Amino acid sequence: MIHVFETVLALQLQLQGLLSQRFAELFSNFATFASGMLVAVGLGLVHALTPGHGKAVIFSHFLGQPGNILAGLRVASLAALTHGTIAVLLVLATGRVISPLGRPTGAGAWVEVVAGAIVASIGALYAVLALRGLRRRGTPSHGHGHKQEGSQTPRSVLAIAMGLLPCPLTIIVVGSAVARGATGAGIALAAGISIGAAITIACFGLLGIALRRAGVAAASGHVRGLMRVLSWLELLTAILILLLGLGMLAGSLGRMR
């Protein structure tokens, strides 16, 4: 596992180096622009495999809540777009928002605190709805209820909350481009990074959807038992989202000390 992580980091550094060579000439011709954007998308794909980016939260959400492929793609795209946009705005607005590791500092660090609080709050809301569903299914009058109350919770808010954590790589890329007087190129390449990250994040969301559907298909002949299992699954994934949000919150507060 450590070897895989080291390989991912090495590939990310290699792609990042290739990207930095394209700042000045990105808009010189179509071929240069296309190759630069391709490298940016690849960098986003690889970078999103590193820890963070809301993969665990989004996977847990779709494992515990009903969803379809379109919803998975939409949530991943929204999270990645917000993730990259916040990073670009922080660089353009403050200029000095990064530590040597690319993490936001100063006012930018409060964005991470807010994101963690939102994710924890949504996890708590999911848990309350799941507990309510378990109680209802435990009574005779609601024993055959199939309505997924939790599915009405604001999925897009969860995606935006995950995206509020600014992308350290995008901060570094855009910051380097701005320092070289190539702000437009930095913003364009940041968009490419976001597209690549969205693809990777979407794979985790779609995996959650696939596993949930596989479980439903396997237990399709036992409707009552299936509903009970799904209710407990919703509760467990809600608790996981709550814990992930609290972990994000504690980590961001710890870095501010």
Description:
The chain is mostly helical and 257 residues long. It has one domain (2-255). The protein is 75% helix and 0% strand. The chain has nine helices and no strands. It has helices at 2-20, 30-47, 55-64, 69-94, 109-137, 155-163, 168-179, 183-218, 223-255. α2 (30-47) crosses α8, α4 runs parallel beside α6 (155-163) and α5 (109-137) packs antiparallel against α6. The longest helix has 36 residues, at 183-218. The chain is elongated, with a radius of gyration of 20 Å. The two termini are 31 Å apart.
Please give a quick description of this structure:
By secondary structure, this protein is mainly α. The protein contains nine helices and no strands.
